[in-house]
């Protein structure tokens, strides 16, 4: 194998390929980056035995061939080289890959091509087109609510389901927070199986990284995998579907429509800034902000043993019977940070019941956060 490539044309793809390679553990096959020179293209392939990445990049191929190299070492080397042309040559006698750029020469050991296992091909039939930016935004708005525990079955997964008439819901749940982003895509809705699809969070994170910088993508679904391909056909990314049963989230979403709910309307940025200051007073034992609710005023208070206490008041609009409720400070900040609306509305179902958050400029987006049980512990009192 012998070819010449331009660093600037390939480095982004190499970094995407390397990001899914196991750092140290796993078989040598999994830690390998496979380079295939064929025609006028260099194909770069990597896998962790679940996710698969394949990218094709223009190259001047003198001799076709296939080699596997230690992935992270190869990518780190190319990343640190200056821009410009790089020549890759398989040295059959020494069993190494020569990397040359001007007076710079390097050798990396290679794996026998018999180790190579065929990668999945993108199923072009009935594939649908989608905006990469929009898909990435959906993932960002939902994934922060997915459980980080790989052993939590379905709630450790992104859930995407068609609900009819071209409408799709994308959900994330971790036991104390839930995010739902709905949108319309007729072709994708028709492709989704009736039970929807589940993708583990660790794969969602890699998918978000791969989508960065792309404009359009093609998407397809098989019985076992989700396939994504760049709009220009240059890169493909695929990952396994999970087979758990997702919880019936309508059992708690429907509570937000009850006539008995209390509603709080406030300035999102002003509230986030106040919560940021109150977070200074949070401790492991008391990490909450307490909300004292009145018709036109919201009082936020926080206190922590050996830390101090704080309270701030905000102008709001409130209707309801709940006088006081508490939320984990940083969790509430995180939730509000995923909205873009200047003002948001909090809908309280009960002192310890689900609270739904919506914003006028965030259509079809709802986040639910669970309140904390209020205790009467007091560390600081006003002097008489």
In CATH, what is the class of the largest domain?
Alpha Beta
Helix content: 10-25%
Give the total of beta strands: 26
* Estimated radius of gyration: 26 Å
Compute the average pLDDT. Answer: 92
Shape: elongated
Q: Per CATH, what is the topology of the largest domain?
A: DNA Polymerase III, Chain A, domain 2
Number of domains: 3
| Derived structural class | alpha+beta
Distance between the ends: 85 Å
Residue share in β-strands: 35-45%
Largest sheet: 13 strands, antiparallel
Unreliable parts: 378-384
Describe the structure.
By secondary structure, this protein is of the alpha+beta class. The chain has three domains: 2-115, DNA Polymerase III, Chain A, domain 2 (Roll); 128-247, DNA Polymerase III, Chain A, domain 2, CATH 3.10.150; 251-369, Roll (DNA Polymerase III, Chain A, domain 2). Helix content is 20%, strand content 41%. It contains eight helices and 26 strands. The strands form three sheets. It has a 13-stranded antiparallel beta sheet with strand order 5-1-7-8-9-6-2-3-4-17-16-15-10. A nine-stranded antiparallel beta sheet has the order 14-11-12-13-26-25-24-18-22. The protein has a four-stranded antiparallel beta sheet with strand order 21-20-19-23. Helix 1 (7-19) runs antiparallel to helix 2, helix 3 (132-143) packs antiparallel against helix 5 and helix 7 (268-278) runs antiparallel to helix 8. Mean pLDDT is 92; it is low at 378-384.
């Amino acid at each position: 194998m012998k070819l010449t490539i331009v660093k600037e044309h390939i480095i982004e793809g190499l970094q995407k390929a390397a990001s899914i390679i196991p750092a140290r553990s796993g078989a040598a096959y999994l830690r390998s980056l496979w380079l295939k020179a064929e025609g006028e293209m260099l194909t770069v392939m990597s896998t962790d035995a679940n996710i698969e990445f394949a990218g094709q990049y223009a190259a001047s191929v003198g001799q076709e061939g296939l080699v596997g190299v230690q992935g992270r070492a190869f990518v780190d080397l190319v990343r640190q080289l200056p821009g410009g042309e790089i020549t890759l040559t398989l040295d059959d006698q020494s069993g190494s890959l020569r990397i040359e750029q001007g007076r710079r020469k390097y050798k990396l050991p290679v794996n026998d091509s018999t180790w190579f296992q065929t990668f999945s091909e993108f199923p072009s039939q009935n594939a649908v087109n989608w905006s990469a930016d929009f898909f990435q935004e959906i993932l960002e708005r939902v994934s922060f609510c997915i459980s980080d525990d790989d052993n939590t079955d379905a709630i450790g997964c992104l859930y995407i389901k068609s609900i009819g008439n071209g409408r799709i819901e994308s959900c994330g749940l971790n036991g104390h927070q839930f995010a739902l982003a709905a949108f319309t895509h007729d072709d994708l809705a028709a492709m989704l199986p009736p039970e929807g699809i589940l993708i583990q969070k660790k794969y969602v994170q890699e998918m978000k990284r791969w989508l960065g910088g792309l404009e359009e993508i093609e998407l397809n679904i098989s019985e076992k995998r989700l396939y994504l391909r760049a709009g220009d056909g240059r890169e493909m990314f695929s990952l396994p579907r999970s087979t758990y049963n997702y919880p019936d989230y309508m059992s708690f979403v429907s509570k937000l429509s009850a006539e008995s709910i209390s509603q709080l309307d406030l300035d999102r940025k002003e509230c986030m800034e106040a919560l940021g200051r109150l977070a200074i007073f949070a401790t492991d034992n008391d990490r909450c902000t307490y909300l004292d609710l009145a018709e036109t005023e919201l009082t936020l208070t926080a206190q922590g043993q050996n830390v101090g206490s704080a309270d701030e008041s905000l102008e709001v609009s409130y209707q309801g019977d709940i006088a006081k409720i508490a939320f984990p400070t940083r969790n509430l900040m995180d939730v509000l940070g995923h909205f873009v609306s200047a003002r948001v509305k909090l809908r309280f179902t009960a002192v310890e019941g689900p609270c739904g958050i919506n914003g006028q400029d965030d259509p079809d987006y709802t986040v639910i956060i669970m309140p904390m049980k209020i205790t009467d512990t007091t560390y600081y009192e006003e002097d008489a």
